[in-house]
């Protein structure tokens, strides 16, 4: 089992390096926007990107997940059939959608809740979604082939180019909102060109009809699931816009982005997890392996949650070079939402692990009701809590929505793919982490005391039996090697 976990860890590390670099570079845009755009303009950008998150689901219509399922097993057709059929389908559908958006850009500004004078943003958005959609299957093929380094390189290339173009258009040329979307479009197009060789090597211009039927049968039920999932992530922005204003959306979005480091953990883990569990699904000890993965994932998340909750606000309030904050003071009211964002991302990762049983047993029809339970919970609570608590209400609703999804998903999956998770270890981890966070909130300590609380938390994990004897021995060996 340890060797299998090392393999998952190695793949996660490779994806992680690219994800960390990409997200950090992308995060660099937050202070750029915050120090140049008004909070209202930042809110407009956040709102449009939330709509992109919803619409792109229709562009891919579940084909990425379908590709993973059928290309990994080769149940129908050969390798080129399994690549070409979903790729050509996505290209056709996304091309049609983007053409319509481009032609009707002006009237669509009202649907996107932006000023009619920003109609070019809709045109850029149409192009962004087209090029992002047509690289989904090529990226999935790289993951399935375990070409993690090439995958990582292309992702980093995309983000670096995006950041550079944003610096040029937003900072130097002062093109504002339009500069942001034009930069994204140019980066998406260049990534498409960068992936053309690997796409061409697998592509044939024909569609396997029998495979297409099965792809649609597997993938279409995932569309409403995707919409519910995106609702969990993004629906609070349009609701905040409706109940408050663009400025509130901008403050909320900037603070939400501070959860980047937990998003890194869940993101890089998800990239490695899907091909990992599919390749080990038939192993005799697969369920025990998956249970151990859950424990380790939660342990890593606990470290990140406490570290960020304790120290992030100190970093945000520090004036770098005596001149600039990461976020200017007008955004600081949103910092209180960060711990809730971190927990929301943690629960998102739990859902990624639980989803293994759904994929292995081909029970995708269960994803929609479980996802819908969470998105409805979030929508209802956002409308209820925002008028009372402001942007904090949106954060409360987001966490409640993710908890609802994972609880219902756990109950459903355990019925047809039961796994005996390491409940006692997880309970110990949860109680110790909650105690450490409570001490931080109640004591409002300085940096030294916060460091002491973290040290006490780590000692508690060793003292109260969270680690097994084998894990302790491996940790001792690692410490000896590092000294």
Using the alpha-carbon principal axes, give the shape.
Answer: globular
Work out the radius of gyration. Answer: 23 Å
Q: What's the N-to-C terminus distance?
A: 27 Å
Domain module count: 3
Report the major sheet. none
Q: What's the tally of helices?
A: 22
Which residues sit in consecutive blocks of at least 5 with pLDDT less than 50? Answer: none
Helical residues, percent: over 70%
Q: How much strand content do the residues show? A: under 5%
**Secondary-structure element string:** HHHHHHHHHHHHHHHHHHHHHH
Task: Give a short synopsis of this structure.
This protein is mainly α and 483 residues long. It has helices at residues 2-27, 29-36, 39-60, 63-73, 79-103, 105-111, 119-134, 136-144, 148-172, 176-200, 209-219, 222-234, 236-243, 246-256, 260-280, 286-316, 338-360, 367-389, 391-416, 423-443, 447-463, 469-482. The protein has three domains: 1-25 and 245-421, no CATH class; 62-219, no CATH class; 423-474.
Descriptors:
mainly alpha, 3 domains, 483 residues
Describe the structure.
The chain has about 475 residues and is mainly α. It is about 80% helix and about 0% strand. The protein folds into 3 domains: about 1-25 and about 245-420, no CATH class; about 60-220, no CATH class; about 425-475. The chain is built from 22 helices and no strands. The mean pLDDT is about 85.
List the helices and strands and how they pair.
Blueprint: H1 2-27, H2 29-36, H3 39-60, H4 63-73, H5 79-103, H6 105-111, H7 119-134, H8 136-144, H9 148-172, H10 176-200, H11 209-219, H12 222-234, H13 236-243, H14 246-256, H15 260-280, H16 286-316, H17 338-360, H18 367-389, H19 391-416, H20 423-443, H21 447-463, H22 469-482
Helix pairs in contact: 1-9, 1-15, 2-9, 3-7, 3-12, 3-14, 4-5, 4-8, 4-11, 5-7, 5-11, 6-7, 7-10, 9-10, 12-18, 13-14, 13-18, 15-16, 15-17, 16-17, 16-20, 17-19, 18-19, 20-21
């Amino acid at each position: 089992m340890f060797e299998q976990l090392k393999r998952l860890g190695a793949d996660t590390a490779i994806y992680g390096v690219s994800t960390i670099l990409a997200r950090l570079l992308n995060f660099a845009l937050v202070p750029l926007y915050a120090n140049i755009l008004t909070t209202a303009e930042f809110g407009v950008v956040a709102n449009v990107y939330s709509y992109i998150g919803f619409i792109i689901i229709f562009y891919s219509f579940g084909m990425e997940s379908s590709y993973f399922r059928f290309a990994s097993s080769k149940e129908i057709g050969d390798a080129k059939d399994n690549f070409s059929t979903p790729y050509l389908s996505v290209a056709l559908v996304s091309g049609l959608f983007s053409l319509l958006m481009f032609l009707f850009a002006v009237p669509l500004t009202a649907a996107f809740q932006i000023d009619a004078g920003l109609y070019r943003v809709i045109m850029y958005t149409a192009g962004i979604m087209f090029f992002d959609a047509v690289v989904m299957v090529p990226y999935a093929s790289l993951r399935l082939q375990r070409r993690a380094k090439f995958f990582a390189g292309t992702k980093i290339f995309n983000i670096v180019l995006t950041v550079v173009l944003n610096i040029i258009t937003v900072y130097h040329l002062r093109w504002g909102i339009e500069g942001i979307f034009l930069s994204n479009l140019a980066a998406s197009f260049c990534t498409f060109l960068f992936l053309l060789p690997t796409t061409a090597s697998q592509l044939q211009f024909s569609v396997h009809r029998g495979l297409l039927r099965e792809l649609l049968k597997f993938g279409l039920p995932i569309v409403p699931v995707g919409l519910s999932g995106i609702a969990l992530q993004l629906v609070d922005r349009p609701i905040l816009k409706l109940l408050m204003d663009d400025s509130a959306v901008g403050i909320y979005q900037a603070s939400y982005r501070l959860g980047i480091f937990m998003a890194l953990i869940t993101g890089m883990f998800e990239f490695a997890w899907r091909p990992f569990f599919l390749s080990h699904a038939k192993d005799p000890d697969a369920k025990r392996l998956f249970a151990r993965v859950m424990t380790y994932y939660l342990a890593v998340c606990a470290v990140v949650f406490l570290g960020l909750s304790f120290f992030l606000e100190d970093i945000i309030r520090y004036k770098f070079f005596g001149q600039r904050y990461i976020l200017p003071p007008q955004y600081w009211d949103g910092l209180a939402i960060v711990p809730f964002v971190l927990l929301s991302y943690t629960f998102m990762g739990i859902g990624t692990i639980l989803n293994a049983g759904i994929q292995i047993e081909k029970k995708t029809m269960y994803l929609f009701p479980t996802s819908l339970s969470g998105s409805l919970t979030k929508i209802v609570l956002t409308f209820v809590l925002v008028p009372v608590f402001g942007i904090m209400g949106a954060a409360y609703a987001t966490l409640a929505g993710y908890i609802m999804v994972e609880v219902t998903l756990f109950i459903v999956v355990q019925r047809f793919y039961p796994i005996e998770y390491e409940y006692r270890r997880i309970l110990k981890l949860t109680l110790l982490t909650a105690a450490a966070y409570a001490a931080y909130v109640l004591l409002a300590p300085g940096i030294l005391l916060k460091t002491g609380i973290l040290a006490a938390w780590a000692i508690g994990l060793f003292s109260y039996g969270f680690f097994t004897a084998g894990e302790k021995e491996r940790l001792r060996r690692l410490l000896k090697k590092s000294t």
